Amino acid sequence: MNKMLLALFVTGSILSTASAWAGKSDQVIMTEAAQKMVTVAEAKKLPDETAVTLSGVIVRKTQKDHFELKDSSGKIGMEVDSDLWRPMGLKAGDKVKVIGEVDTNTGQATDIDVVQIGKMENQSDKWTWYNQH
Questions:
Q1: Which domains are assigned to the chain?
Q2: 116 pairs with which residues across the strands?
Q3: β-strand 74-79 against 126-131: which pairing, if any?
């Protein structure tokens, strides 16, 4: 009986630790971000893993899956997985709305890890959304 309890305790500890490493699910991030529309300047001051929504214009692609977003308060880097940006043909000049997490990297600039992105289509005020799978 004691061995069974010990096994259950160890298994539970491992599973709870693994879920802590995994971070928030995309659904949780989207739910939290819906309540936190911020500017670029505000996002740069927020703690790591804060869910946010931002909007602005793509300035440029900086690396393979990295872009720079600009709004009236400044610029910030974004990591956008290729399964999001490629189907939408994301490029400089596109007006976008971004949902993601603040990512504070030691020794590097704060950026946004994107889980959902919407692109304004033809100035029609219609957004086309792209989600991570």
A1: 24-131 (2.40.50.200)
A2: 99, 131
A3: unpaired
Dihedral angle over CA of 18, 44, 87, 21, nearest 10: 0
Tallying the residues shown for the chain, one arrives at 133
The backbone torsions φ and ψ at residue 21, rounded to the nearest 5 degrees and listed phi first, read -70, -30
Which run of H or E residues covers position 37?
none
Residue 96 to residues 4, 30, 99: CA-CA distances in angstroms?
53, 16, 10
Burial class of 99 by CB neighbour count within 10 A (0 to 12, 13 to 18, 19+): buried
Q: Band the pLDDT of 1: cuts 50, 70, 90.
A: low
Instruction: Label residue 108 by pLDDT band (50, 70, 90).
Output: confident
pLDDT value at position 24? 82
- Residue scoring higher pLDDT (10 or 78): 78
Confidence at residue 97, expressed as pLDDT on a 0 to 100 scale:
94
Two tokens, residue 21: 């490493």
